[in-house]
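Researcher: Checking consistency across runs. Here is Nuclear nucleic acid-binding protein C1D again:
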Amino acid sequence: MAEDDYPQELNDVFKSFDANLSKVEETLKPMLTSQRSDLTREMDPIDNAKLDLVAAYAVNSFYWTYLIANGVNPKSHPVKSELDRIKTYMGKIKEIEDKKNAPKLQKEAAKRFIRSAMFDGDNYSNVETKVPKSIENDAVVVSTEAAEVVEEPTTKRTKKHKKNKSIKKKRKTEQ
């Protein structure tokens, strides 16, 4: 069959397909020419699982394309459920990586932050503060609104602190 027997647009599509298929072969060449143990020797378990999932997804995607080329509806074929299963595992790996990269709570810094938010700084070192249980138990504090402020019963010390605070306010307004 000569090139003139079919439309030029179809010829362009075939050339593009051939070029893309060559790129896929180049990309997969390291995986196909070397032993799996050589590829995974220095990988951590997460990267190893990613490699397995990408390989499984690629094989199933090629089979999906094969089914389409043969006129079979791949949406009703078991390969669809296999691709969905692989996507689910890819999502699980992403969740694990996100948890690993999530910010960690620094207990002492959180305590200092809450103490400074509760008091204005004048003689606050003389006042005992109660830190919310969520911080004491190493739970992650999502925002400062999540931490409850625990009011202490009024004592001589807190009365004196309040009195000193009101005197300082009066002095500032008089100036």
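Researcher: Does this match what you'd expect to see?
Model: One thing to look at in this run: DSSP finds seven helices and no strands in the chain.
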